[in-house]
Write a structure and sequence with these properties.
5 strands; globular; 2 helices
Length: about 90
């Protein structure tokens, strides 16, 4: 699974046709499929998050549900911060 974050506002019109709206653990998520896997996009505060994975959707849902806001100290956030830290300019 790859996780990306970018400051800004989620523009649903900029997503591929066929992106479906879903709610995952209270988060409004847009989901679509690409040759690379399932893509899920959601906004939290002023950050847009994107996951790309070939894992089953229920497993991706668990990651999205447990994904905390920046500054949180859960394990997923610490791993994400470690991996993405060098690219945060």
């Amino acid at each position: 699974m790859s996780v990306f974050e970018q400051e800004g506002d989620l523009d649903p019109a900029g997503l591929p046709a066929g992106a479906e709206s879903r709610v995952v653990d209270g988060r409004d998520v847009r989901q679509y499929r690409t040759p690379g896997g399932v893509v899920m996009v959601w906004q939290s505060g002023d950050v847009v998050y994107t996951t790309v994975s070939d894992a089953p959707v229920d497993q991706i849902d668990r990651v999205v549900a447990n994904f905390g806001p920046s500054g949180s100290h859960n394990a997923l956030d610490r791993v994400t911060d470690f991996v993405l830290g060098p690219f945060s300019w």
